Amino acid sequence: MKILELENEPLSKLRAIAKSLNIPNYNRLKKESLAMMIREAEAQKDALVTALEPFAGGGGHAYGYDDCRHCTAYQVLARVRSGEGKQ
């Protein structure tokens, strides 16, 4: 969401979004700060997905995995971190 869209949302909705994004102390933040934190968390999430896209969803094999064609970027990241599935 764009920052202006977030600032126009009610505080209760912003808190629900922040909770789903695991933003710490979201219930203590002012509306403007909360909107900025949400936007930052969304941008980081988008950057992670973009960074992992070459390794998943038809982009080839990620670090030796032979079945990543149908994995999401988050599944690939979890597998890489855990060492699961290496050949």
Structural account:
With 87 residues, this protein is mainly alpha-helical. It has 2 domains: 1-51, Transcription Termination Factor Rho, Rna-binding Domain, Chain A, Domain 1, CATH 1.10.720; 56-87, no CATH class. Helices cover 54% and strands 0% of the residues. It is built from 4 helices and no strands. The chain has helices at 3-7, 11-20, 31-52, 73-82. 21% of the residues are buried.
Short note summarizing the structure:
This protein has 87 residues and is mainly α. 54% of the residues lie in helices and 0% in strands.
Protein topology:
Elements: H1 3-7, H2 11-20, H3 31-52, H4 73-82
Summarize the amount of helix as a percent range. Answer: 40-55%
- Overall domain count: 2
Number of strands: 0
Tally of helical segments: 4
Secondary structure class reads mainly alpha
Q: What attributes does this structure have?
A:
87 residues; Transcription Termination Factor Rho, Rna-binding Domain, Chain A, Domain 1; mainly alpha
